[in-house]
Specification:
Length: 121
């Protein structure tokens, strides 16, 4: 059974940093596109960034230069390093995985349960 488990969320002041982790299990994820999406209160879930197995990475414009996605295939884990956090980054962050995608912002079929990130002003 495929399972994605996020960790590392919390409360941080504006300008601070957090590192999210997503541990995948149930099969190998070496060939998967791994990524992060987020959902703020009252808003739709949105694309944050994704990393391909070959190392290509795409970010949404609002986080480019502040957030960094990386992966450790040996550990079946993907990370999201978030720096210079802003109140508008407050959301539940979801890990996502899948072998195929129609475009960069379309998620794969596997989701984690989400982890709350709250940025205070």
């Amino acid at each position: 059974q495929v399972q994605l488990v996020e960790s590392g969320g919390g409360l941080v002041q504006s300008g601070g940093s957090l590192r999210l982790s997503c541990a995948a299990s149930g099969r190998t994820f070496t060939n998967d596109i791994m990524g992060w999406f987020r959902q703020a209160p009252g808003k739709e879930r949105e694309f944050v960034g994704r990393i391909w197995t070959g190392g290509s990475i795409y970010y949404t414009n609002s986080v480019r230069g502040r957030f960094t996605i990386s992966r450790d295939n040996a550990k079946n884990t993907v990370y999201l390093q978030m720096n210079s956090l802003r109140p508008e980054d407050t959301a539940v962050y979801y890990c996502n995985a899948g072998l195929f995608t129609s475009d960069v912002t379309t998620p794969g079929p596997y989701w984690g349960q989400g982890t709350q990130v709250t940025v205070s002003s």
